[in-house]
Fold this sequence. Notes:
Elements: E1 3-8, H1 26-37, E2 41-46, H2 51-56, E3 67-72, H3 78-91, E4 96-101, H4 102-106, H5 108-111, E5 119-120, E6 147-150, E7 153-154, H6 165-168, E8 173-174, E9 188-191, H7 202-214, E10 220-223, H8 229-234, H9 238-244, E11 250-253, H10 261-274, E12 281-287, H11 293-306, E13 309-314, H12 349-367, H13 375-378, H14 384-394, H15 400-409
Parallel strand pairs: 1-2, 1-3, 3-4, 4-5, 6-9, 9-10, 11-12, 12-13
Antiparallel strand pairs: 7-8
Amino acid sequence: xxxxxxxxxxxxxxxxxxxxxxxxxxxxxxxxxxxxxxxxxxxxxxxxxxxxxxxxxxxxxxxxxxxxxxxxxxxxxxxxxxxxxxxxxxxxxxxxxxxxxxxxxxxxxxxxxxxxxxxxxxxxxxxxxxxxxxxxxxxxxxxxxxxxxxxxxxxxxxxxxxxxxxxxxxxxxxxxxxxxxxxxxxxxxxxxxxxxxxxxxxxxxxxxxxxxxxxxxxxxxxxxxxxxxxxxxxxxxxxxxxxxxxxxxxxxxxxxxxxxxxxxxxxxxxxxxxxxxxxxxxxxxxxxxxxxxxxxxxxxxxxxxxxxxxxxxxxxxxxxxxxxxxxxxxxxxxxxxxxxxxxxxxxxxxxxxxxxxxxxxxxxxxxxxxxxxxxxxxxxxxxxxxxxxxxxxxxxxxxxxxxxxxxxxxxxxxxxxxxxxxxxxxxxxxxxxxx
Length: 435
């Protein structure tokens, strides 16, 4: 029996998100299930543990591993992979270290240069794909996961420049059914498909999910990568099925310019007709990319007019091997030495931070049905009764200018998301960090 150690590096993910549906090491869970089917001794650990910690976390008969399989995620999290390889190479110098995952697949040549790496595995593990994830491998102290991860397809026919999916999974392949893949103890289903609606069997799959929901075998679904709105326009009846299947956090992408607004509005209307409220819908927007700040602000304002939320995605190149962006360094600022800034698109550190701030406050207003955002209200710097009184007062005003004048008189900071808001100009040597 071979001892095989599966390792998820200490990625910069909040501890409360270790078992988050967006970061679960699903590849390792499938590989673990595959090796267990071969009667191998498998253990999954997270972070850089020493030998004694690993023994405590596993069976009494655990000895040194012959193989160590380390996963990787985004290319800009290379430093965490590098640190993990170094650690386990020191702990178990005789073990074979294999690195797979996204970074390893997109930049295999760079990955194999890491000292201690014996082999780089590129792409999807075809043999492991035949197995369902073994969630028991996750060493967590909380309650067992109430959801499961499913793929109905691999790859994506779209070849977007900013996306690496079609490079890692060049062949688009699909399954026709999911009902036999649902675990009895998992009430949520998260689809990791890169283009769920592109599956030619999607109607059958949605019908299966609807029946499972009616029987109470599942309670909610989610498509991590959202829905392809172009397919939705071709098949608008899918929106009602998506709604009946219990999909939450419904997202569509507005990747390109403002001129797409009519097409995006049509997609939103289809979902609304299918049963969703506007505030339940999210629009993917890439920032720090080719679309300039001012145009993205116009797009954001249009989304506020439609009453929908925004999922903002900061762009990093597919070969970016570091990202030290710190959201708390707003006033001090950061440079391209810290993280990627797309200056060709006119992006700067202040613009990146400002757009993220605008989106956050936009979403708060949408969720709470508010016309404007105020940090004093959010942080409860005023008594609750006073805030209620202010809202009652301004509800009687006839114009936004009246509201602004009233808030100004009371010294209350505000932001109306139906207006564009430019990036702040810092007073202390902006030029030192702007580019």
